[in-house]
Specification:
3-stranded antiparallel sheet; alpha+beta; elongated; about 140 residues
């Protein structure tokens, strides 16, 4: 079995479970108003989670620090290294109201150099912190 280290950005939408705290596994509605209130809560939460996913995806991509098309302007050895680093892909997984973005730190042919990905994840986490403060 092969083990590997990862750089991980874990994002969780706090308070999500509290919204449905008193709701059973199968909701029981006695009136149309109860059904409408429940549906409104579900739509609101799904929209928040979708907005969070889109925001994090956009931040991750915006944090790429060196334009790929400018790599050819560098000396050949630096250009090749930048192109190699640029190939780094950040993997992601979603479950419930949580998002996980990660990149392996070991010898993986799909991830030739994790330097850019680590920078992107750290920058993204800082930007998310600022956005969270701004929204409060």
């Amino acid at each position: 079995m092969k083990t590997q280290n990862y750089c991980v950005l874990f994002v969780d939408l706090l308070g999500y479970r509290n919204l449905f705290e008193h709701q059973g596994l199968i909701p029981e509605f006695h009136t149309d108003e109860e059904r409408n209130i429940f549906q409104q809560k579900v739509h609101e939460r799904v929209r928040l989670i979708d907005d969070l996913r889109r925001t994090v995806d956009a931040l991750v991509e915006k944090t790429r620090c060196f334009p790929q098309n400018r790599a050819d302007e560098l000396p050949p050895n630096q250009s090749a290294q930048i192109k190699r680093i640029w190939k780094t892909v950040i993997r992601k997984q979603f479950f419930g109201d949580s998002l996980i973005y990660y990149v392996p730190l070991g010898q993986d042919p799909d991830f030739p150099s994790p330097v850019l990905a680590i920078h992107m994840l750290i920058t993204c986490s800082g930007l998310l912190s600022l956005l969270a403060l701004q929204r409060q």
